[in-house]
Amino acid sequence: MIHSYSSEDKVLLAVDCIIFGFDEEELKILLIKRDFKPERGKWSLMGGFLKKDENLDQAANRILHHLTGINNVYLEQLYNFSKVDRDPVERTLSVSYFALINSAEHNTELTENYSAKWFTLSEAPSLIFDHGKMVKHAISRLRYRASNGPIGFELLPEKFTMRQLQKLYEAILGEKLDKRNFINKINSLDILVKLDEKDMSSSRKGSFLYKFDQQKYKRKIDDGFSFKL
Amino acid sequence: MIHSYSSEDKVLLAVDCIIFGFDEEELKILLIKRDFKPERGKWSLMGGFLKKDENLDQAANRILHHLTGINNVYLEQLYNFSKVDRDPVERTLSVSYFALINSAEHNTELTENYSAKWFTLSEAPSLIFDHGKMVKHAISRLRYRASNGPIGFELLPEKFTMRQLQKLYEAILGEKLDKRNFINKINSLDILVKLDEKDMSSSRKGSFLYKFDQQKYKRKIDDGFSFKL
DNA sequence: CCAAAAGTGTTCGACATACACCCATGA
DNA sequence: TCATGGGTGTATGTCGAACACTTTTGG
């Protein structure tokens, strides 16, 4: 048995995370101001390098935790960006990941303890290297995933109103949806539980809160059900 | 300006290609018998290592050409497989690519000059490392792409019959399709040209040949059209 | 004349879309 | 009492699914 592929080239492998959040109205991404060279002072995605004793998912989790204090969020590998001169310092490939976080839960902590900032998609500054391309790619994957699986709930608090859910989907899909049709469709999926509780913050009448029913969803999936929105 | 990220780990990056072909009846993948260690003599995907002066798409094209003599085919990056001990020799990550080739055009050349062999999906031998996982992933991507874009034509000769096209889609999707519904749907897309020519090899009556009209398709796309099958 | 594949339309049901009014409440 | 957002059902059109017979021609 041989012990190395000794004549082959090795490369640096970065991991960059596109972190999505939702603030009741708009879809946002979390960026940090770089405090190191090159491009110090410019805005960038959260990133870091793969270490030799971890896989990419682990690296993405580690980087996310290190830069934001956050753990246990939805993370998904997207694409490997490999243009030879994409990083001016040294040949580096970057694997992009997208993350979904419930920003209500983490907002203040984030912006105070770490120098991260939320930007709406339209207000986001231009990013270093090919990070802009990564964001575009991530948005299109997010749309796909949100339309084909119950992934949107990752961006909401555990309990949420129908209106919040609708606003979220409108933000993800970039289009207005009809209130009645949306609710009918969601109800026909039969994967939410309506709670006895109301959220009173948005109106005088108050609106019922719902929870995503993970167990029920899994049972339905095993039964051939497929989520489509 | 700094000139290296000197303290970071570097890794070997492989590229492995899942090559799909179609032989009038079944979807196949092209494998080679490894003539080097480790796992010499076992079947594997076509693979090689990324070199420092090329990007991943270039590497995939180079590897494909080197191992099969084929150039200019549809290639798409899929996923980074990064488990720490996936390759027993040395830490290696692998980026999988899937390729679509018109096997009629390349068949004999391939199996004679190179030690490659076509396998139907059900007859394929078990593969080294995590190559089996890569194939599964590639099939699901192929299904998605073929359902949402005119990518199936990459697997057919330039001129083809409706029946061939239907068989191809049946093979990709893994289900029988209704002849009339299929033809109606394809015709309603309005992206094929019917030729005056018939293919006489499959029946006494002969069946008309069609070509995919790239120009027309592009015009329709620019016009907001979206391919769905 | 017969076997074997090619070609061709219509009906029916399901699902998506469009659309407007009453309700409950706090101020 | 009124302003604000919450909640609810129906009618219509579109698209996908099921389905069977005639045509051609080489042997």
Automatic annotation (TrEMBL), chains A, B:
InterPro entries cross-referenced by the UniProt entry: NUDIX_hydrolase-like_dom_sf, NUDIX_hydrolase_dom, WH-like_DNA-bd_sf, WH_DNA-bd_sf, WHD_NrtR
Pfam families in the cross-refs: NUDIX, WHD_NrtR
Metal-binding is among the record's keywords: no
Record has Hydrolase as a keyword: yes
CDD domains to which the protein is assigned, alphabetical: NUDIX_NadM_like
Gene Ontology MF term list: hydrolase activity
UniProt entry keywords in alphabetical sequence: Hydrolase
Domain Nudix hydrolase intervals: 12-142
The protein's name: NUDIX hydrolase
Organism: Zunongwangia profunda
